[in-house]
Amino acid sequence: MLICVFCIPVLFFGSSLVPAAKYPVGDGVSFQFFLCVGVWITGAIVNLIVKNPPFFPLVMIGGMLWATGNILFIYVISIDGLDLSILLWSTTNKFMGWASGHFGWFDVSGILLTVSELTDSQRLLTVNMKKRIIGCSLAIVAGTLFGLVFTPSTYIQNHQDKYPGAIKNGLNYIFAMYTGILLTSSVYYGIYLIFKRNRPYICIERLTATESGKLSNYFHFCEPIHLPKKGLIHRSALDKSLHFLDTIDEDIPKGMFINSEFHIYISDTSIMLGWSVQFERGSGLVQIRSLKWPGMAFFHIPETNRYGSLYCGVGEENKDLAFML
């Protein structure tokens, strides 16, 4: 029985981040937000099971630490891989959990962490080595934060005279902690949306029919207009499917706009570029056609990974585009 009690958490914790390694999560911020939403829903269910115990805001600090470590860990996976990332943060997690429980939060003294690594300069590029060091460092930081998650709830359990209604049952503090996780994740996600101008990275498989009708969700191979100027190290960490391409709505020049039915109008005909969007079979298929190059089309079946492009033409531009609209 005791073995089963340990095996179930090991199974769930060990596989909770498998989707982050198996599926494209882009920059990971949207992934961590939806992950935290799932965490909070689980906490709400547990809270109902334990019959709504008292809510202690101090426990939310543990949730804040967890959410911060979680958003760091998403980036670590893309750099170090799932196996090395979990090894680093879990080891640091266990150490900090023991230290905070044995010495107390503010009584830690004389602890020194050293990390040494033997590298072969002839096989590894400097850029990759710097990325690996950054990834390992972030994994250790994330593990440190994870190791302090239960310190606030443990403090309340050990000082029941200061917190009326506090008991030793750890499940009573789950909802408060998970609320802190969701609130912190929401703050990070809000900052991310402001930085991205309300255009978060979402995999094409997740696009609904409505989202599939937005040109800003599709990319194509052309010389990027808005690619930020970055050095070699920063460029190596960019996502080729996201950072090296502009969305096809950049083909719509100033003076051209799209109405709610995806009809395109042009008031400035100096540049004849643009795309048209149309739904077929109800909303089961989205076609995006080039207005400048007849015969060029992109198709996508919403909420699936079935998409592609097709060109059936003679390679000539549509010079009559301005007169056709």
UniProtKB/TrEMBL annotation:
GO terms for molecular function: carbohydrate transmembrane transporter activity. Keywords: Membrane, Signal, Transmembrane, Transmembrane helix. GO terms for cellular component: membrane. Residues 1-20 form the signal peptide. The chain crosses the membrane at residues 30-50, 55-75, 95-113, 133-153, 173-195. Its main location: membrane. InterPro entries: Sugar_transport, TMEM144. It comes from the Eukaryota. It is a multi-pass membrane protein. Belongs to the TMEM144 family. This is Uncharacterized protein.
